[in-house]
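Let us walk through a complete example step by step. Step one is to write down the protein sequence. Step two is to encode the small molecule, magnesium ion, as a SMILES string so that its atoms and bonds are unambiguous. Step three, shown after the inputs, is the structure prediction itself.
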Amino acid sequence: MGIYTLPLKNMRRNKIRNFSTILRIAGGVILLLILISSGLGINSFVKQAESFGETTLSPNASQTNSSSNQTQILTSVVTYLNSTFGIDLESSPIGNSLKNLLGTLIYVLDGLASIALFIGVLGVLTTMYFNEIERRREVGLFKIMGFSEGQIFLSLTLEGALLGLIASIIGVILGYIGVFLISSVFTFISLNIVFPPWLILGVILVTTFLSFILAIYPAWLASKNDLSVVFR
Amino acid sequence: MRDGEFILELKDVSRTYHRQSGKQALEKISLNIKRGSLTVIIGPSGAGKSTLLKTAGLLEKPTQGSVVFKGKETRELSPGERAKLIHRDIGFILEDSNLLPYLNLLENVMLPMINSDTENAKDILKNVGLTELNKFPEEISYLEEQKAALARALVNKPSVILCDEPTGKLDSSSARKFMDLLKNLKDNLTVIIVSNNDLLASYAENLFYIKDGVLKEKK
Ligand SMILES: Nc1ncnc2c1ncn2[C@@H]1O[C@H](COP(=O)(O)OP(=O)(O)OP(=O)(O)O)[C@@H](O)[C@H]1O
Ligand SMILES: [Mg+2]
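Step three: the predicted structure of the complex.
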């Protein structure tokens, strides 16, 4: 079966730790998805990708424009507040500063979403470092079986990538559900939900790639282990 | 490749570890291993047994001297080439079976398999007397673990099996069972065993003693 299928079997080990790492990454993915798909987060990313979507994916995707989506949300929030408090916020200075505040908030959310994803993916590091002695034993075993350091390194980085892949798929599914829950709860905001295929694919690819990159150093370190743990 | 009488030749092999102050772990060891022979090397703790086995098994290079495997000088081989040779032709059995706890017995045995063939792996497991292949390492005895380790070492049909204290975790009756099994399965395999257990000496076709890195043949 070789050592490249091991990362998959490896998910059986440290179930709790793998599970918590996957949850953390998935959490980041969910937040990112909700913010992007509702037209709030990662503005420039959305705009870029949307023009890409226009030309290659579907011509009618152009009806959803994230910046118009934003103003739409802002206006609907202000209208909602107007009707709740029974005052005309629109014409008062408070209304304007509220608008500015919400505008800033969007950029803060931008950052938060990326940070959340990044912190989630950092879980890969702790998972890879976890149980150092068990890892050294495993690497020693691979060496006496005749696997080269390169093969061992690749197998270990694949483990990191696999964590990212599983987590992002879970995150995308939960995020998808989350977006629709949010849009059905906050009906006062007329959300234009954008959930194009590139977003799903992009988030999965980016998360998996990030996890792979983060696994490189611990994997390289582990592949250099000597045989002293297996030989006595 | 020369098809000589000896499958493995150590010529004046010495090994010094960096941290050791002058003292050599192996001192000018010369050893010729015949094809199909069973060699046992007995020695106390710290004698250099594991160092000798790692050197003979191409896992580590000697500081001085040469290791000739199947007529081929191994000094100039790259780490990748050594790994390949080990993978195809050398099986290791150590004191700890090192079975991966998250794989069942069949998966453990198939782990190093070059031509993944489940039936073949099952046959090898059957030959060592293991039939409950879905069991996990924590569910079996030490003797069964070592049997699985033996099956795993045999799975690529190597020409040499190297054992470091293979019965170290077994009581003497289990140790005898394991050694009998190894002897029966050996066929035309070449086996080298290092141990500090005198019990294993009785299985030797060629018996050696090692102490402070010096090897002596017992006639
Ligand atoms: N990685 C290492 N670094 C430094 N010295 C080492 C190393 N490995 C072994 N040695 C030293 O080399 C000598 C031989 O060690 P080796 O492990 O080969 O002995 P051994 O016969 O296998 O002993 P044991 O029966 O305890 O397994 C010892 O003096 C040991 O301290
Ligand atoms: Mg030893």
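Step four is interpretation. Residues 41-46, 52-66 of chain A have pLDDT under 50 and may be disordered.
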